[in-house]
Design goal:
With 436 residues, this protein is an alpha/beta fold. It has three domains: 31-267, P-loop containing nucleotide triphosphate hydrolases (Rossmann fold, 3-Layer(aba) Sandwich); 272-304 and 324-350, no CATH class; 375-435, no CATH class. The protein has 15 helices and 14 strands. It has helices spanning 75-82, 106-115, 133-144, 150-163, 180-192, 210-227, 238-244, 262-267, 272-279, 286-290, 324-335, 365-368, 377-385, 387-399, 403-435, and strands spanning 31-42, 49-60, 64-68, 90-95, 98-99, 116-119, 198-202, 230-235, 247-252, 255-261, 292-293, 310-313, 319-322, 344-345. The strands form three sheets. An eight-stranded mixed β-sheet has the order 6-7-8-3-9-10-13-12, with helices on both faces. The chain has a four-stranded antiparallel β-sheet with strand order 2-1-4-5, with helices on one face.
Length: 436
């Protein structure tokens, strides 16, 4: 069973309003968001694709919970499910102990929108290009009537735009007049002006320059310290996630495979997929990076045919996905309390084994095909008009591995010869009839 530490209530029954506080776990922490055995499926019938499988985890009030994994692993799908964009095909999403997935009352839906905001990955695509910055930031305030007068609304907008590092005069401009980093600040201001309790940050820095990323991350930490905001931080860059996260969840092909506190996860990456992600973190030293050995994850190492896997707490608030044999092995490694070696550097002076010549030959079909082998229709037309020359040209193309050109010539020549033969036969028939 995955990480489910929520105090059991009748939370499966949806309330019409959110409570002031979420349930408290056995360690005295307030559980703000919980996923319980969530499946998210796209499509129906034979074309159905299960993007998320049996995902379960808790996010505590005031923490940064990061969800990491490679592209297509289901990170954004979970984030969009939390803000009620992607429906769950199974399981429940609970906010403060109240189910917010599926069909819920309109009053609760508005409270969820008000309390959970999202910062999107692409700052250009997430902003209305036809609206001014003032309207973009004010839209949530207007929809929820979070101001007494226009003066108060403008004061809130000007305050938040200043807090994200822009100027009040920027409010009259349009998104296309800003850089990528400035657009992301506008997106962050749009979310924070609502004073949310939970922010889903979907790779908010991946589209930004390296020099701008630190500034945006500092803004996120600033709001967390000042407003006690909770983050679900979605990312694939573990080097950044390590320094901003309280806890990290690792997801592989829709399944949560490991959850632990940041330093715990980096010191003891027990699941082999987690080890592969950590080994891929670039090293600033080019010599060390060149001689680094990558750890490649091979899913075939798991034998789940009989002994089925599950998420298990192995101690130290560390959850790992595996069968009984794997869990026992993980526990033994963790009980040694000796941090695992996640990165191996080869000796640059060690002799390198020379590979056989056949290893250097590409097996990619696209490289085995000559560049001029286009199969142009003109080869078919010329071969149709001159079928004998077309056949000869096709044989020459085939000898030199121009397969597409050969097929084009051969096809045109056969059609030309067929039509020529049909015309000869018709001519002979008419000639025979004329002599009768």
């Amino acid at each position: 069973m995955a990480e489910v530490s929520i105090v059991e209530k009748s939370s499966s029954a949806t309330a019409s309003h959110l409570p002031d506080h979420g349930p408290i776990d056995e360690n005295g922490r307030e559980v703000l968001l919980s996923l319980r055995n969530v499946d998210i499926t796209f499509g129906k019938g034979d074309k159905a694709v299960k993007a998320v499988k049996n995902a379960s985890f808790d996010i505590y009030k005031g923490e940064t919970f990061s969800l990491v994994g490679e592209s297509g692993s289901g990170k954004t799908t979970i984030g969009r499910a939390v803000i009620r964009v992607n429906p769950c095909s199974k399981g429940d999403i609970l906010y403060k102990g109240v189910r917010i997935s599926g069909k819920i009352p309109r009053s609760l839906d508005r409270e969820v929108i008000r309390n959970i905001q999202m910062v999107f990955q692409d700052p250009a695509a997430s902003l209305n290009e036809r609206a001014t910055v003032e309207y973009i930031i004010s839209e949530g305030l207007i929809n929820f009537k979070l101001y007494e007068s226009d003066k108060e609304r403008m004061e809130k907008v000007e305050k938040i735009i200043t807090e994200v590092g822009l100027l009040p005069e920027h409010l009259t401009r349009y998104p296309h007049e800003f850089s990528g980093g400035q657009r992301q600040r506008i997106g962050l201001a749009r979310a924070m002006v609502m004073e949310p309790e939970l922010v889903v940050a979907d790779e908010p820095i991946s589209a930004l320059d390296v020099s701008i990323r630190a500034q945006v991350l500092n803004l996120l930490k600033k709001f967390q310290n000042e407003r006690n905001v909770t983050y679900l931080f979605i990312a694939h860059d573990l080097s950044i996630v390590r320094f901003i996260s309280d806890r990290i969840g690792v997801i592989y092909k829709g399944e949560i495979v490991e959850i632990a506190e940041a330093e715990e996860l980096f010191n003891f990456p027990l699941h082999p997929y987690t080890r592969s992600l950590i080994s891929a973190i670039p090293i600033p030293d080019p010599i060390l990076e060149k001689n680094k050995e990558l750890f490649t994850y091979d899913p075939s190492v798991h034998d789940y045919s009989v002994d089925k896997p599950e998420m298990v707490d192995i101690g130290h608030n560390h959850f790992v996905y595996g069968n009984k044999a794997e869990i026992e092995e993980y526990k033994k490694i963790r009980e040694t309390d000796v941090p695992m070696k996640t990165i191996t550097i080869r000796d640059p002076n060690a002799p390198v084994e020379e590979k056989a010549d056949e290893d250097n030959v590409s097996t990619e079909p696209i490289l085995d095909t000559p560049i001029g082998d286009t199969g142009s229709i003109w080869y078919s037309i010329l071969s149709f008009l001159l079928p004998i020359l077309g056949l000869i040209g096709g044989l020459i193309f085939r000898k030199h591995n121009y397969i597409k050109n050969f097929k084009a010539c051969f096809k045109g020549a056969l059609i030309g010869l067929g039509i020529f033969a049909a015309l000869v036969i018709l001519f002979l028939i008419f000639l025979g009839i004329a002599h009768l």
